[in-house]
Structure formats: C-alpha cells, structure tokens
Amino acid sequence: MDFTLNEFEGELLDLGRTYAEREIAPVAAQAWHEERCPTELLRGLGELGLLGTLVPEKWGGIGSSTVGYVALLEALGSVDPSVASAWQAHSTIGSMPLLLFGNDEQRERWLRPLAEGRKLGAFGLTEPGAGSDVRSLRTRAERVSDGWVLTGQKAFISNAGTDMSFGVTVLARTGEDASGKPRFGSFIVPKDTEGFTMGPKLRGIGWKGLDTRDLFFDGVWVPDSQVVGEPGGGLGQFLSALEVGRISIAALSLGTASGAMRLALAYAKQHEQFGTPIASFQAIQFKLADMATEIEAARWLTYYAASLRDAGKPFKKEAAMAKLKASQVATAVVTEAVQIFGGAGYMLESDVARFYCDAKVLEIGEGTNEIQRLVIARELGC
C-alpha cells in the first residue's frame, strides 16, 4: 500500500498547513477560551477553495481525493481541533447528502454555496432521546398538498447557528413501511424558514470553538423541491454520508493526537528536572515512543480506509475500524501529553490542556465507539 500524496494533494496539504500555521494558530486559543466559532477563519478556508474539498469542480469544489482530504484534515486538527471539527462536519455530513443524493437543481442552489465557501453546512440527526438508536427519531415530516410540515427537536447539531450557516438538512420520520418499520426523509431547511428556531450555543468540555445547538421545528413547511432524494430514503442517505464522516473523525483524531504529541515533545526537550531536559529520561522517552507508534498505526488504518473509498471499493468496516482506533489513540496520547507537562499541562491556559479537552468527544461523535464495534462485528458476519 502506497499512500504517498500526488502533486495536487501535496499542494493542497501545503496550502492548508500554511494557512493553519499563519492564520489559525495565533487565534486558536483565544477563540477556544471565548467559546466563539471563528467563522472568519472558515471563510478564509473557503476563499482558498478548501470548504469544497470533496466536492467536484462541477459543483464549485476542488474534487480532492479522500486521501488528500484526510491529510489536510490531520494538518488542520494538529493546530486547532475546534476549527477542524467545524470544517470536517461541513465537508462530510453537511455537504455529502446533497452531493450524493440531491438532484442537479438542489446541488446548484444549495451545494454550490457550501463548496465555494460562502455558506456553512449542517445536518440534523441527533435528538434528546435518539442518538445511536436512529430508528427512535421522533421529529416528523407530515405530507401536505404542497410539501411537508416538520415538527420536532434536534440536539447537539453543529454549524447550524453561525453567521455563515445556510440552515440545516434534517432527517425526519415520514411514516412506516408495510411491515411497520419507520421511514425517514432528508429535508433542506434554510436558516430563515418560519417555525425554525435554535437554542443558545451549547457549552461542551471541548471543541469550544465549534457552534453546537439544539434546533426546534414548529410546523416548518418544506416544499417538495427541498426533499433530498426519495422521501423514504433519508436514513440510507445519512448512513452513506456517515461512512465518510467516520474517516473524517479518524483523521481529526490523528490531528488531535499529533498536535498534542508535538507540544509534549517540544516541552520535554526544553523543560529540565534534576539539571537535565526530561526528554533524556527513559520514562519520558518510552511515553513518546509509544505515542508515536500508536499514532502511526492509526494513521495507516485511516489512510487505508480513505484509499478504499477513492478506489470505489467497500470501506464501511475499515472506516469504523479507523474511527475506533484513531479516537482511542487520541484520548490516550493527549492524556500522556498532559502527564509529560505535569502541573503545567493541567492548567487551562496551556495548549495541551485544550487538546486534552477536545479529545474525548472523538469517541462519541459520528457514531460512538460502541456503535463502531457493532458495525465491525456485523461486517465480520457476527
């Protein structure tokens, strides 16, 4: 297996890495502590063409491979997991349903502004009583003569409430099939739609720069032109987009882990105890060696899953494996990074503490790690 980036992918990575170091790094900590989504940075990424990384040029994107996207996301995540999380949510579940299942009119009207970096995409799935158990979703879409009426609530939805957001694509129950199983549809709801409101920005222990809110739908009318694909095919659409999202979270996990390790390595080389840098102590060397090895193992899984998608081969199992492994590596690495910093790493003023707080959600978002294990087991035939 050769995951060497081609010339275009390498240029893409250099572009994103330079922007991250020059523009994102200087303000990342401040935005995180202010609990503010720095949309000016996302607009900057859009001006570089990087908000449409996975979208073909035909619809305003740049048509990168999944491997190139993963490399770019890892680089962004190593500087600021919060901004990178907003970027990846926009690029995958915020854009992929429209790209994969929308018609040309919808792609032109809704996907193009997302791909060109003029708007930020969001997808509404999770509810207060339904997350992993998707079939328990209660938000309903009832058929009326000229469209659909949505009623319900979504929880923990990212990117829908910024000054850059277009609105949200929502998964809602449309009825039941002949056997009584629920059917779902995906509906485009623009930000200014009557009856569509949002709660305040939620406060998490990490990803403080990511705008996450509860969304409320009180008799929201949606015309047929804003139904993505078949009214009963929404769940399958989302699950297809989620497979890409799992690779995305794996890449973000790599960035989080590698960023924390970079901080820990630099600190170990300059911080002295007993008259010598702590990097000379075998106990610290072993920690760093294990961290580097685990990151590299997770990297191979992640890039392999991405390469399978690029080759048009099944990648469901590999995406779940990558997400499971990489997110576990991220939480383990940031914990050891804080340990290397000691008391200084425990203080929220330190960058490594920011990475520590940002890591835990990687084991939860885009399908919990328990769900990843179920996916893997089923793909093994269990």
How would you describe what is shown here?
- With 382 residues, this protein is of the alpha+beta class.
- The protein folds into three domains: 7-115, Acyl-CoA dehydrogenase/oxidase, N-terminal domain (Butyryl-Coa Dehydrogenase, subunit A, domain 1, Orthogonal Bundle); 123-235, Butyryl-CoA Dehydrogenase, subunit A, domain 2 (Beta Barrel), CATH 2.40.110.10; 236-379, Butyryl-CoA Dehydrogenase, subunit A, domain 3, CATH 1.20.140.
- Helix content is 51%, strand content 15%.
- The chain contains twelve helices and ten strands.
- It has a four-stranded mixed sheet.
- The chain starts with 6 loop residues before the first helix and ends with a helix.
Brief characterization of the structure:
InterPro entries: Acyl-CoA_DH_CS, Acyl-CoA_Oxase/DH_mid-dom, Acyl-CoA_Oxase/DH_mid-dom_sf, AcylCo_DH-like_C, AcylCo_DH/oxidase_C, AcylCoA_DH/ox_N, AcylCoA_DH/ox_N_sf, AcylCoA_DH/oxidase_NM_dom_sf. GO terms for molecular function: acyl-CoA dehydrogenase activity; flavin adenine dinucleotide binding. This protein is an alpha+beta fold.
CATH class value of the largest domain: Mainly Alpha
How many domains? The number is 3
* CATH A-level architecture of the largest domain: Up-down Bundle
Category from helices, strands and their pairing: alpha+beta
How much strand? 15-25%
How helix-rich are the residues, as a percent range?
40-55%
Question: What is the fold-level CATH name, i.e. the topology of the largest domain?
Answer: Butyryl-CoA Dehydrogenase, subunit A, domain 3
Low-confidence stretches: none
Principal-axis shape = globular
Pfam families: Acyl-CoA_dh_1, Acyl-CoA_dh_M, Acyl-CoA_dh_N
Domain Acyl-CoA oxidase/dehydrogenase middle: 122-220
Domain Acyl-CoA dehydrogenase/oxidase N-terminal: 11-117
Keywords: FAD, Flavoprotein, Oxidoreductase
